[in-house]
Predict the 3D structure of the following.
Amino acid sequence: MATVTLERRGNVAVITIDNPPVNGLSAAMRTGLEARLGECLDDSTVAAVVLAGAGRMFGGGADIREFNTPAAAEEPVLPTLIDRVEAADKPIVIAIHGVAAGGALELALGCHYRVAAKGARVGLPEVTLGIVPGAGGTQRLPRLIGAEAALDMIVSGTLIPAERAHELGLVDRLVEGDATAAAVEFAAQASGVRRTAELTENIAAAKNDPELFDRYRKKMARRARGLIAPYACLECVEAAVNMPFDEGRAFERATFKRCVESDQSKALRHAFFAERQATKIADVPKDTPVKTIERAAIIGCGTMGGGIAMNFANAGIPVRVLETAADRLEAGLALIAKNYAATVAKGRLDQAAMDRRMALIEGTTDYADLADADIVIEAAFEDMAVKKEIFGALDAATPPDTILATNTSTLDIDEIARATSRPEKVMGTHFFSPANVMRLMENVRGAATDKETLATVMGLAKRIGKVGVLVGVCDGFVGNRMLYAYSRQANFLLEEGALPQQVDKAIYDFGFPMGPFAMGDLAGLDIGWAVRKARAATRPPDLRYSPIADRICEMGRFGQKTKAGWYRYEDGSRTPVPDPEIEALIVSVAAELGIERRDISEQEIVERCIYPMINEGAKILQEGLAQRASDIDVVWLYGYGFPRHRGGPMYYADSVGVKTVYEAMVRLHDTHGDWLEPAPLLEELAKSGRGFGDL
Ligand code: NAD
């Protein structure tokens, strides 16, 4: 039940908003707050007012449950409410604990003073939803902390610690412990009101630095590539500097409206909700019992095992890593230490924290040491015989309710599960490389996996900072299966006339961090080569196959690690340099295959790479290997850098129109045949005028 309560502490009134889980500023909250505030202002025995939040934070901002409902527009809307707070003639002090984000921070900016508990975090994350703060935040923050510091916060959307906010002048008093008590004390002594909108000093300083905004535009160019909202945020701050407050406010409002209605914001909001939706499993209710995970174990401390172990240590969970021999173990642990040390060197982790984390990671070569593990994640060689042997050994070494998971990328999890006496406790946990950085975790449901195991692993993903998405067993699961479809066409495009740099540029311009060839060089071309060789015998002989990637590997070019792959690399540089040798190879392979090379446009490249990927996504949905189209979007946003402002591949299909995608697939299939047959679900949606979002 949402409430706004009023209590007296001496001559100070304390108004507390209580709307679990994050005190979202719903219509009821706003109305309640306005009414209580009115009572305080009318009461001559109240000298000052404190605003506080119940529960674990002051407030997360707008109530997302009200998004796209009429309640969001009900008066008092937030800008009106905040103006009333600021106009009050008694000091209003806000007590911030936990978090004050978005609209909640805008409310704080409209208060006359801000008191915050140490450890709290504040920020304006609106930009991540493709909008600008719309309740005066872009106008008040620069007046309080200066234009440049305000740009840093508003354009990035990151939350900053209260300690930093105090240094910047956003927080007037920083306290240990109870922020409300401290705010009451502060309010009782406050002499008069101090309205943020009337502050002039910082604005004058920014006016005297006319190049500030141009400098900032250049600084943000790379991160804000292709995006509307970060630039809209900048323009609002610019307006704060150059316009009177009321005009700036009107500019902010108009900008907010333009952004809210933009396709980018719709896509970003889709991504936000898709991520929340992905945590739900249709047949695993919220109250499904979960196993407590107190200790974990990892089999294999190579590239992936080491990274996975770090996730547990980072979350404070003790983890044991098992290797085949002492020297391998030593090498694996040394690599983990080196990774942590690099973070310490960059100033993103302190030495004491690194030491604490390293102390949580223990090595062993003996299965007997795994007897107390609640979950084991296997990340050994990608070989069925190896995995089966390991799972047999784990079955014998651990209690019967220990969860046994595998990080396999390609092998059949049900077959691995059959090597144990507890297939219901076996599933896949597919991490992405580098496993300590990439946030996606494809949680693979085996035929026998029980609900408790699924619920436990989905919860665990969150606890170790990952975004878990449930997928089914198939070759490549969701992400890599679609990636195959995408990179296959990228390779064919080379034969038909494109060059790697041209394909990569088109995909980069679409919004990916890099194109398929630069990505291949980064990941290492030998991995895919090994998989292709292992599967050569079962490759469909009637379907087109591009030999270029194999030829490149035969030349010993495995990507960045050998300083040559699809591109070449100068010593110590990760910048791909187009290589005439590769161009010659591509031209000669095309000639061998009898393909006449032609000019290929950027648009064709994008359609040819992205549409077949969507088509594969449609097959995955139809086969029931993903629960919903938006889960596929989450996989691609977090595992492969699909541009978030396009919402993910399936959302993107809806935004260009499934019919358009279907017709393009029909055309591509007619021209190029192989691999491009439209999926039945794509056809069905196109013909019935529906989208993936309607499923
Ligand atoms: P890797 O070769 O870097 O590491 C494998 C480690 O496992 C080695 O240190 C090896 O000594 C150890 N090992 C081998 N057999 C073992 C056994 N019987 N018992 C204990 N340890 C053993 O390989 P990787 O890249 O870390 O891949 C590990 C697994 O993760 C594979 O199944 C792979 O398909 C999967 N995977 C890899 C990536 C990636 O990008 N590298 C991404 C997702 C999943």
Summary: The mean pLDDT is 97.
